[in-house]
Write a structure and sequence with these properties.
alpha/beta; four-stranded antiparallel sheet; disordered N terminus
């Protein structure tokens, strides 16, 4: 694949091409090889002796610059006798006159790695940021034109038009805990910022049925009441958890028909109560790392869960959900390849999964570095970053006048808007939705 130059300045665009199939012949290198082929051909592969003493195929790189994103390295589940695709990237903290980029296998003693169709493509910070802005413009924003006319259809020039975004289409949210109930500072801080939420622990099986048959939905009911009152979208997390540590203790002792009856009752109880309330369901949590139900109910246990949930709550989007998919390369259970393989298995079995959940447990020491607020709900530095991002992702209140054709043009983030129009002693207000489309939205207003 070749990078696209969109403007005279040569804006370079990241190529999102990726595949997990193992192919008989290697594909052509992305970006025509990038800086690995600047001399007109594919860069020579050398061999590097690692700290373990093993020799790995490598590229010698010269004069790499700091604060530049290089798209290259990652982790893949390579298979024998075919070509597997490997893709990723890195950023240097400081410049380097001489570097070695090498490839190694988890089994360094018996595996021989061959490299073909390699590429290394640098992106400046400005190029990377410009691509982000262009992607946002294409996927989260839309052009709109307000046309103002009188009751006879004559266009009015010079009319004052004010645009105010009332609600955002893009869901941006956080987990909430039961401590939000009755806690006004917590509630106000959350509602001011977010339009989506997920309950932290309150829907989990161990919380709603700590003992067999002792169902208690009081807390999630109250949290859902808060969600509804503030018109917040909410996800369902989770129906089952494959980790036995977080499975109710009484369930861990069940097998066979008794366990089957318990899981059927769990699905029926939960979804008959909350059908239509949760837009997403994390059906079987952390399937890549654990298999509590598969070990006891057979290899298709989770597939059966997805199928049953789909039948009861057909409008909800069903998710796989797991950790260490994007946080690290050191967890063989949850590589991107493994995630895709499991996703395909469930879909091919009829599970109809439409959502990919990435837990994203990035670790920083100390709450001050990771928490959004202090105990009194005053922003910490991380909270300020969230606020800055939310401001970037909303349409600022704007005002202008219609042109000679009675039109006023703006581009805005998708969502709900209030348009106020006035001229002389006449005025009106109109609300409208700016939805996803490649076409310009036209709004006709009469005064």
């Amino acid at each position: 694949m070749v990078a696209v130059n969109k403007s005279e300045e040569g804006t370079r665009y990241y190529d999102y091409t990726a595949y997990t199939e193992c192919k008989s012949c290697p594909e052509a290198p992305l970006y025509n090889g990038g800086i690995l082929s600047e001399n007109g051909g594919e860069s020579e592969v050398t061999y590097y002796k690692s700290e373990t003493g093993a020799y790995s195929p490598a590229f010698v790189l010269y004069n790499l610059t700091e604060s530049t994103r290089y798209t290259f390295s990652w982790t893949t589940l390579a298979r024998s006798r075919c070509w597997s695709f490997l893709k990723g990237g890195f950023v240097l903290d400081s410049s380097s006159d001489f570097s070695v980029l090498y490839f190694q296998s988890a089994d360094i003693n018996t595996t021989v790695i061959s490299i073909k169709s390699a590429s290394l493509q640098p992106f400046s910070v400005d190029q990377w940021n410009q691509q982000q802005q262009d992607s946002i413009q294409q996927n989260r924003k839309r052009n709109a034109i307000v046309h103002v006319s009188d009751t006879e259809g004559n266009r009015i020039s010079g009319a004052t038009v004010s645009i105010q975004q009332l609600a955002k289409d893009f869901p941006f949210g956080s987990a909430i805990a039961k401590t939000i109930l009755g806690n006004k500072p917590y509630q106000e801080w959350f509602v001011k910022r977010f339009n989506a939420a997920v309950f932290e622990n309150e829907l989990k099986w161990y919380a709603t049925e700590p003992e067999p048959g002792q169902l208690n939905y009081t807390t999630p009911d109250e949290m859902l009441e808060f969600i509804r009152a503030n018109q917040i979208t909410v996800r369902g997390h989770n129906i089952f958890w494959e980790d036995p540590l977080y499975t109710p203790s009484w369930v861990r002792n069940l097998t066979g028909d008794a366990l089957r009856a318990a899981v059927d009752a769990r699905i029926t109880s939960l979804l008959s109560r909350y059908k239509g309330d949760f837009v997403h369901w994390d059906v079987s949590n952390e399937l890549l790392h654990f298999d509590f139900y598969e070990q006891r109910l057979g290899p298709n246990a989770s597939l059966g869960f997805f199928d049953t949930v789909r039948k009861i709550d057909p409008l909800a989007t069903l998710f796989m959900n797991d950790f260490n998919v994007i946080e690290t390369c050191n967890d063989d259970k949850s590589t991107v390849d493994n995630y895709i393989v499991r996703l395909k298995e469930l879909n091919e079995g009829g599970g109809i999964l439409e959502g990919i959940g990435l837990e994203g447990h990035f670790v920083r020491k100390g709450c001050y570095q990771m928490c959004l607020t202090d105990g009194d709900f005053n922003n910490l530095p991380a909270g300020n970053v969230v606020d800055k991002l939310l401001q970037e992702w909303e349409t600022k209140e704007t005002q202008g006048t219609t042109n000679d054709h009675g039109s006023y043009t703006f581009d805005g983030f998708l969502g709900e808007y209030m348009v106020s129009v006035s001229v002389e002693n006449r005025s009106t207000e109109v609300t409208f939705s700016l939805g996803r489309s490649d076409e310009t939205e036209h709004l006709n207003i009469q005064l």
